[in-house]
Amino acid sequence: MVLDKVRTDGLLPTIEAVRNKLDQPTPMGYCNVGIVVGVGAGVVDFAIGDRVASNGKHAEIVSVPSNLCARIPDTVEDESASFTVLSAIGLQGIRLVQPTLGECVVVTGLGLIGLVTVQLLRAAGCRVLGIDFDPAKLALAQAFGAEVVDLAAGVDPVASAHAFSRGRGVDAVIITAATRSSEPVHQAALASRKRGRIVLVGVAGLGAVRADFYEKELTFQVSCSYGPGRYDPSYEQGGNDYPVGFVRWTEQRNFEAALDMMSDRRIDVAGLVSHRFPIAQAESAYAIVGGSEPSLGIVLQYPVEPGTEAVRFERTVIISGARVASDSAENCGVSVIGAGGYAGGMLIPAFREAGALSVHCGCRRSRQCAPGPQVRIQKATTDYQDAFEPCSGRNRVQSP
């Protein structure tokens, strides 16, 4: 894309466009717990003051479609509810496996989702064999009622699975590991009984050996995130639910089911939190995720500071240090509705070259405006009405 832009627009405009893109902050994460502070038109399932879990980005205030929220039971604490989305991912994998009471199921990879999956399978009446390299995670799986295989000790997972299933082969394997290797899939096939089921919830290489699957008529399926509706704009953004008679478990209903099981203590996530960080130290949290330090669940906490509530609820902020335009006719001011990457990289600089030296306002659905620091807009807003008024007319809050 960069090379194509160099050919069409030239080198210097391309360099500037790339720098503008790199200057933009990227929303992180996809699990939030909080209080509803406002509802959109047509939303009837939630009300202001409801405590909800959602797949919203990490932020103090976040806008989330109603189908991606679930009301939190009173008996579930906020920290536990922050595991809702992860639990729904494991739950969707189990729904694809369709286990029955008493079946033998292997869980390969005992990270956060794997350990939640162990608990869900135990709640469903299954015998569970957990496989991992980490002794601490194996100990947690044992505490949740699973038998375990320590790969670090050189234990053969296939032989262990056959012994665990009384020589019949296991009924199902759920792979919740993250690896480029195809070995977990190969081992799952060898450990399975005839017509067994294998579901990939995590990430693994798919260099499968045909004979492994052909001779046993195994079924293999990749689980898509946390349930039907995922990646469907009509469901997620449009708010169009699937009829319960045809799709019993959507992603939202999986959220609700996970929260219900937390409420009944059939899912225990208290022991899965290894670190807690205030949001101001989020970089340290991500350094642990990408580093070698042992970790499981890392919770980001948002402080409630007296006097800050009004600032967070403002839809318009004045950018500190921006030059306020004069009211003279010679100094034409411009407000931009839709201040995204193209506006910041192309349109606003073009207006400046044409003599519009003042950019009053950048208006966008989120308060994260795309124009880089060299553009120097005077205010950012999510209220399009503010884009029609001079910057000096409705000053709100000074942004640091």
Features:
5-stranded mixed β-sheet, disordered C terminus, 14 helices, 16 strands, Rossmann fold, 6-stranded parallel β-sheet, alpha/beta
Give a brief description:
The chain has 400 residues and is of the alpha/beta class.
Give the helices and strands, then pairings.
Elements: H1 2-9, H2 11-23, E1 32-35, E2 51-54, E3 69-71, H3 78-81, H4 84-97, E4 104-108, H5 112-123, E5 127-132, H6 135-143, E6 147-150, H7 157-164, E7 170-175, H8 183-191, E8 192-200, H9 210-214, E9 219-222, H10 233-236, H11 251-263, E10 273-278, H12 282-289, E11 297-301, H13 309-313, E12 316-319, E13 333-337, H14 341-353, E14 358-363, E15 379-381, E16 397-399
Parallel strand pairs: 4-5, 4-7, 5-6, 7-8, 8-9, 10-11, 12-16, 13-14, 14-15
Antiparallel strand pairs: 1-2, 2-3, 12-15
Helix pairs in contact: 1-2, 2-14, 4-5, 4-11, 7-8
Q: How does this structure look, described?
A:
This protein is 31% helix and 19% strand. With 400 residues, it is of the alpha/beta class. It folds into three domains: 32-85 and 230-301, Quinone Oxidoreductase, Chain A, domain 1, CATH 3.90.180.10; 100-222, NAD(P)-binding Rossmann-like Domain (Rossmann fold); 315-399, no CATH class. The strands form four sheets. A six-stranded parallel beta sheet has the order 6-5-4-7-8-9, with helices on both faces. Helix 1 crosses helix 2 and helix 4 packs across helix 11 (251-263). The protein is globular. The two termini are 34 Å apart. Mean pLDDT is 87; it is low at 391-400.
